[in-house]
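Figure 3 (text version): structure tokens given as input.
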């Protein structure tokens, strides 16, 4: 097949596509930031955050996150908006009547989607995780330290060893209660419990307490012993005491791969959550192609109701995509569905819809 190149008409469509996309997303970003700022205003005043700090540490780092999160929706809206306008003004009919095939008409749309895809996947794999570090750190500043950590945490430290932490104080690095449970299969064989508060050293990952007890179970007999001065190292990082799902969002793709490998070695029960995060970084950018094909196929036909009808149908389909994506994501996180398959199910479903609409589109 001969390479079609980039003709004047192609440049016209690419300019319209990308221009509409940038305009739509920039407009909504401004609105979202205004509402978000108003919502956070009380806490911003309490922490005496200057407008410069808020803009530098939060707003700038929020923008790429927002663009990638809703990029597919804006691609869809952009395609439908300007393509239905072309159809309503009979420009598409003129193109097809002039001998251009519908396949050829799709070429500049594909080029535009490819540009957005490249930007999106670069943001997703490398830029957004780095931006999330500052964004999440700033959001944590707005919270109390106690809000940054769960009251009750059950963490798998290594295969067969679980750590239960209750009432962790992030400001003092201290917990009200610490228990280490060892299992053989599904049977608990030993438990270590602190009789007093336990202190944590983030640098050495060492836990200390003035008193602790041990309980061992063998042949249906429990042995109970009291001890003084606990001093032990657990393979649990400071970040793992907080929001683990949030931690995964701050890692670039190479760091995330290493992190997942490390958690698998520990036998973590949150592997599916991390694998969902990794799979989404590829599936969301790829959706740009599918949503572009659906948008063009839907809006290239001139119908009664014009642009409004196309946009209404398009937004309904797009929000259906988001709903299905969130639905399958939750199943994946609890281990009901393979995480990679679950994340790609919406793309598979809408790829079939795209193929059907493409075949029905005017040739």
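Below: residues designed for each position.
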């Amino acid at each position: 097949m001969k390479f079609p190149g980039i003709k004047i008409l192609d440049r016209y469509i690419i300019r319209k596509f990308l221009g509409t996309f940038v305009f739509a997303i920039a407009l909504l970003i401004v609105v979202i930031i205004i509402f978000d700022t108003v919502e956070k205003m009380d806490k911003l005043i309490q922490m005496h955050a200057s407008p410069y700090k808020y803009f530098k540490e939060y707003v700038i780092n929020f923008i790429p996150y927002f663009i990638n999160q809703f990029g597919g929706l804006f691609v869809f809206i952009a395609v439908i908006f300007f393509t239905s306008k072309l159809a309503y003004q009979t420009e598409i009919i003129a193109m097809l009547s002039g001998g251009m095939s519908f396949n050829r008409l799709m070429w500049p749309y594909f080029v535009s989607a490819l540009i957005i895809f490249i930007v999106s996947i670069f943001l997703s794999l490398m830029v957004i995780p780095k931006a999330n570090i500052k964004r999440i750190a700033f959001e944590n500043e707005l919270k109390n330290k106690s809000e940054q950590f769960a009251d009750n945490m059950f963490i798998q430290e290594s295969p067969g060893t679980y750590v239960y932490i209750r009432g962790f104080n992030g400001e003092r690095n201290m917990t009200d209660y610490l228990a280490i449970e060892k299992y053989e299969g599904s049977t608990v064989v030993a438990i270590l419990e602190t009789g007093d508060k336990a202190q944590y050293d983030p640098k050495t990952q060492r836990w200390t307490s003035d008193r602790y007890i041990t309980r061992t179970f063998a042949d249906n007999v429990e042995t109970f012993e009291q001890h003084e001065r606990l001093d032990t190292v657990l393979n649990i990082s400071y970040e793992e005491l907080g929001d683990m799902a949030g931690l995964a969002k701050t890692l670039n793709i190479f760091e995330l791969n290493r992190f997942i490998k490390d958690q698998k070695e520990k036998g973590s029960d949150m592997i599916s959550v991390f694998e969902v995060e990794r799979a989404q970084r590829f599936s969301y950018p790829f959706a740009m192609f599918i949503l572009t094909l659906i948008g063009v196929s839907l809006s290239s036909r001139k119908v009664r109701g014009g642009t409004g009808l196309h946009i209404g149908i398009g937004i309904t389909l797009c929000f259906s995509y988001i709903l299905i994506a969130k639905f399958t994501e939750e199943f994946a996180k609890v281990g009901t569905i393979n995480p990679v398959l679950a994340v790609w199910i919406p793309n598979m479903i809408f790829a079939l819809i795209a193929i059907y609409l493409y075949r029905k589109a005017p040739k």
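Strands lie at 152-158, 161-166, 174-175, 177-184, 187-194, 198-201, 206-218, 221-233.
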